[in-house]
Amino acid sequence: MSVVVEMSKVTKTFGEGSSIVRALDGVDLKIKKGEFVAIVGASGSGKSTMMNLIGCLDKPTSGIVKVAGEDLSELNDKKLTSLRNFAIGFVFQSFFLLPKTDALDNVATPLLYRGVPAREARKKAMTMLTKLGMGDRHTHQSTELSGGQQQRVAIARALVTEPSLILADEPTGALDSNTGKQVMDLFETLNKEGKTIVLITHDVDIAKRAKRRITLRDGKIINDESDAA
């Protein structure tokens, strides 16, 4: 089974001199294709730093980070952006849908940025919205959708480019518990279809929905447990 994310002796520091902060401290990690992984920890544990590295938004101070087989230290900013756009589908707590734009065009936007013809992009977007139960809302703007519906649109946007990895940062954080459960149900279904999902969360109950849970404390992995097959 191929490895989608690999970290080897990864350290990430901020600041300098006596004020240096070691956000990640010698982390080793492999995430394989088809895994559903939750990265959990308290504020300041290193979750956000790990997310930024996995999401190709930053590079390590030392050690090696590979995403979809690419060593981040060997990529310039343009290639990092390309890897981020092609290999990763992002889902955020705040949805980040385009305002005054309907659900269909929100989902089609990443394809349009890639140069996919508008008609084809919208066709693929409609297919994805329908799959996620949002086909009948495709003409609705984000202000006309509930929080759960907006998150489904955001997930459709993340999936439409067929990325190697779905990276979800606190995806239920802005939702009530029932709607959050529905979103997690959707992630479980997507994982069963073979999608690789990495979920960043501080919520232990949400993390339990993943098949593998990695706990960070002070920049180190202190626990890595998987459900029995």
TrEMBL record:
Q: State the protein's name.
A: Putative ABC transporter ATP-binding protein
Q: Does the keyword Amino-acid biosynthesis apply?
A: no
Q: Quote the cellular component terms of the Gene Ontology held in the record.
A: membrane protein complex
Tell me the leader sequence span. none
Q: Which residues form the ABC transporter domain?
A: 5-229
The keyword ATP-binding is annotated on this UniProt entry = yes
Q: Give GO terms: molecular function aspect only.
A: ATP binding; ATP hydrolysis activity; transmembrane transporter activity
The UniProt entry, under PROSITE patterns, shows: ABC_TRANSPORTER_1, ABC_TRANSPORTER_2
| Sequence similarity | Belongs to the ABC transporter superfamily.
Tree of life domain: Bacteria
Question: Mind telling me which Pfam families this protein's record contains?
Answer: ABC_tran
Q: Please provide the record's keywords in A-Z order.
A: ATP-binding, Nucleotide-binding, Transport
Q: Which CDD domains match?
A: ABC_MJ0796_LolCDE_FtsE
